[in-house]
Amino acid sequence: xxxxxxxxxxxxxxxxxxxxxxxxxxxxxxxxxxxxxxxxxxxxxxxxxxxxxxxxxxxxxxxxxxxxxxxxxxxxxxxxxxxxxxxxxxxxxxxxxxxxxxxxxxxxxxxxxxxxxxxxxxxxxxxxxxxxxxxxxxxxxxxxxxxxxxxxxxxxxxxxxxxxxxxxxxxxxxxxxxxxxxxxxxxxxxxxxxxxxxxxxxxxxxxxxxxxxxxxxxxxxxxxxxxxxxxxxxxxxxxxxxxxxxxxxxxxxxxxxxxxxxxxxxxxxxxxxxxxxxxxxxxxxxxxxxxxxxxxxxxxxxxxxxxxxxxxxxxxxxxxxxxxxxxxxxxxxxxxxxxxxxxxxxxxxxxxxxxxxxxxxxxxxxxxxxxxxxxxxxxxxxxxxxxxxxxxxxxxxxxxxxxxxxxxxxxxxxxxxxxxxxxxxxxxxxxxxxxxxxxxxxxxxxxxxxxxxxxxxxxxxxxxxxxxxxxxxxxxxxxxxxxxxxxxxxxxxxxxxxxxxxxxxxxxxxxxxxxxxxxxxxxxxxxxxxxxxxxxxxxxxxxxxxxxxxxxxxxxxxxxxxxxxxxxxxxxxxxxxxxxxxxxxxxxx
Amino acid sequence: xxxxxxxxxxxxxxxxxxxxxxxxxxxxxxxxxxxxxxxxxxxxxxxxxxxxxxxxxxxxxxxxxxxxxxxxxxxxxxxxxxxxxxxxxxxxxxxxxxxxxxxxxxxxxxxxxxxxxxxxxxxxxxxxxxxxxxxxxxxxxxxxxxxxxxxxxxxxxxxxxxxxxxxxxxxxxxxxxxxxxxxxxxxxxxxxxxxxxxxxxxxxxxxxxxxxxxxxxxxxxxxxxxxxxxxx
Lengths: 589, 232
Known about the structure:
The complex is a heterodimer. Chain A has a five-stranded mixed sheet with strand order 1-2-5-4-3, covered by helices on one side. By secondary structure, chain A is of the alpha+beta class. Chain A has helices at 2-12, 47-56, 116-126, 178-181, 205-209, 218-221, 268-274, 280-285, 292-307, 313-342, 347-367, 389-412, 416-422, 430-435, 441-445, 452-455, 476-500, 553-557, 561-565, 570-580, 584-588; strands spanning 29-31, 40-42, 62-71, 76-84, 92-99, 104-106, 129-131, 228-232, 244-250, 253-260, 376-377, 380-381, 520-528, 531-539, 547-551. In chain A, helix 9 (292-307) runs antiparallel to helix 10 (313-342). Chain B has six helices and five strands; from the N terminus they run H-H-E-H-E-H-E-H-E-E-H. In chain B, a hairpin with a 3-residue loop joins strand 4 and strand 5. Chains A and B meet through helix 7 and helix 11 of A and helix 2, strand 4, strand 5 and helix 6 of B.
């Protein structure tokens, strides 16, 4: 009860500087009073205390997102934390600021182990060093890369202007090839005085050093025992793209495992900060390319929060419909790929892709593209549903999909091989899942019924009748079953959507190329097929977002991969990865 | 069989299905184009459309391509399906080097062809043809399965026009491997080391000159420098 009252005072407190919490934090915690900002600014010295306090005493046990912002004009780098309660409800935002020169912040790893990769990302892109982090290395780029690219004063080789539309393209329109302007004809640049012949690549010594000694038991036992480091990927048929795992093996058992990523790091965030707000929507399609529609929604929601617009009724229904279709197509494909990893080579995928194609037909009819839909707009959707599509969705939802899911279920669920290989493998307990910031099916298969559609309903999800799927064993098999459950729930939602969808407009106000976004920050999050997909957007009133960050579920779910894989066989590490269901476009961004 | 005979020979009608009189070029090309084994190698979004092309609705096994090999040693065509990043390009060049001749490269989609929507990104290679030779470019973001099929059929047509006389893998000189790029402060092609050195030395000299000028003029305005000092 005391937690409740503490939180009440937080909400009621007038917008003044001061400590709302506890006399312990006097002077260390202040309200963020910048216009359009919310939350608190915590001094770096007290950050760990404050995080522990919010976790243990206020109940914000789930740290959703960690990211950096470069406030170049103020000479400050800011680390932004978004924490939520797994019991539901709104979250808390707190920030800590460090100087741009020699930025050091304490690592929250002891409080929330789920920050491991996110802090590494902030270090990689902003150069903020986190003290107390167990393994602070670059994560998306490679060791030796010059500079920290997300800093505002860091310019890429093809740099043209701070924001789009570039003057060279509009209004006069003299486009030239970027290659022609670069001395190497490529997208490369080097620091002054650099000598390539004297360069020794730093390579991956730090990565392998993290594994500790591989041999050394020789002297003790006199026996030749050896641990082996095996690299899987980035070109490997079962890593779902260009993902790489480095596993230390004793015999066939995984002793330690480190995910290596960044092979598809295509600079979403840097490009996103040059784009106008509208131009970012098609880029979000390419994050999790299996579920472009729900990616759109997350971003559009974050910007809509800043703009204060709300889509009309019909658009809300269309959004839910598209997002749920996306979830179904994603989950059938995920199940197909998981079975692929289990050795049922390609056949389950053929079944999965049959259904996926039917859903893609609907997307193509509505949005014009099979995969990269670019369909949601600020305050609505791009265009109305074409004729006959609702009937098609209705027949899918009422007839074909339930039948086909039952068929998949009959083929797979009680298959002896699947049960033997998947049950009890890759266990993640509920406490671990929360601590490691796991989201989506991974979290819910561990027994935590946390679904943002219910925990903090967005859109019109509060009107639909559906259950939050939850399973309790936290193993690969439960993750598979949970996806099956979720497909069934999505079908239920679809059935309600096609029954109740009203006629009407699909866009609030006039569609605009250049939207006016008031200054401020916002964090929009949705329950994507892979889990909580968050977009942290900072606007300074200009046509381009000042900061655009994607809280990618695939990326953060991987934080728990070593934990799940340790002690299992190497072949099981493959299916554990398959059961997380990652997409590299989103993992690396 | 009939289509393989370049000119009309007097083949008895009952043997027309079994016998063809043809050139070595034709029969080599026919064999090569009818069993193009792609490498199972997905980079990004386009890889999903590649899987769709392999799946039941589009099914590129109709053209002799269903055998996707995870190993470069067993494959004929590398479909570069997605954005090529600087961190990935050493591996792609290595994979290309490991493929046996004759080998073909298809740049699938806008990113692999020229950087695509991510061209300006600091970790993005503007087109895989900066490092490996490309035979067919397929536009689209991502190309539909139909477009990929069209691209592969175009590759087959290209193969049809190859001859033993000019094909590089039959020539006497040994084929050079493409030097694998090195990850330095930025991606470095070993063939460009000299050029890189000249560039960075000039940059250093320019910066020193600018700094000297600034001291001489004694103005407040510092020259715009790249943040080199932040290198770890």
